[in-house]
Every structure is written in structure tokens, then in C-alpha cells.
Amino acid sequence: MGKNAKKRIERRQSAIHGNGVFATGMIAKGECIVRYKGLLRSHVEVDAEYGDLEENGHTFLFTLNDEYVIDANIDGNIARWINHSCSPNCEAILYEDSKGRRHKDKIRIHALRDIAPGEELSYNYGIVLHEPHTAARKKLWACHCGAENCSGTMLQPKRRKRAD
Prior knowledge:
Elements: H1 5-8, E1 9-13, E2 19-23, E3 32-35, E4 39-42, H2 43-50, E5 61-63, E6 68-71, E7 83-84, E8 90-95, E9 106-111, E10 122-123, H3 135-140
Parallel strand pairs: 7-10
Antiparallel strand pairs: 1-2, 3-9, 4-6, 5-6, 8-9
């Protein structure tokens, strides 16, 4: 990771959605590719800034933990352009601060498998909404990854409450 990350990945037009991030060199399974960067903000700050905006199915906000969100709209790096896929080749891993300082937690993107030069990087966004998944919301958060197992939405399935 670090300086050579820029040499191994680049941003360009994506067939999935808008911009994407592509491997320019071989990336090995398990390798840390890039850290997801942006302004660290509280959930309250993010709600105040973006809460009244109409959702458009596009976000550069990454929930870090119960206290903080990474807002890649401000000081974001190339990681903000990595698209969602239902069959991803990467995963976002939370690195918790060893001293329990929640503001020091980090998100890093790792390869789930070997990634060849020219391949687009992707991970499952894991978007969870507390509101019902209406047809309109599913359309708003539509997935266009093209994977055989594509669910058609970036929204994660609701967990069913078990009857006792």
C-alpha cells in the first residue's frame, strides 16, 4: 500500500457506473490495495450536511463505526471510485485502533482473489437501510454490476425477525 498503490491502480470510466478503479498491475489475493480516505465526521454532522438532500443512489459516505463516517466528498482519494458488485474481487476491512480510539479506526480495501491488470476493482457496499425496501428505493440503489448472481440492488437483504 502507499506510494506504489497509485502505480497499481487508476481511475477511469467504468461499465458498471461512472468512474471506476482498475488494476494496472497484478494484485495478489489478500493484498491491501488502498485505504479509503476522506474527512472524518460524526453521524450527526453527516445527517446535518446531507440529510435533507434527495437520495440519488450515489454516495461517497462510508460508515466507519457507531460514532464516525468517512466523508470522501471532502479530501477523498481514489478508493471512493471503487464500484459495488454482487460478485466482488475486493473487500473493505475495518481496522480498529488498538487503544480503542474510534476516531483512529481505518478502512482498507483488500483483494479477495488475485486481480489481473485491467480488471475493475469492486466490493459489496453492504448498504443497510432502516426504512422498508420499496420498489422505488431498490431502483434508486440499483446495481448494474452484470454478475451472474446480481441481485439488482446494492441494498442488503433485510434480516427477518425470528418468532420465539
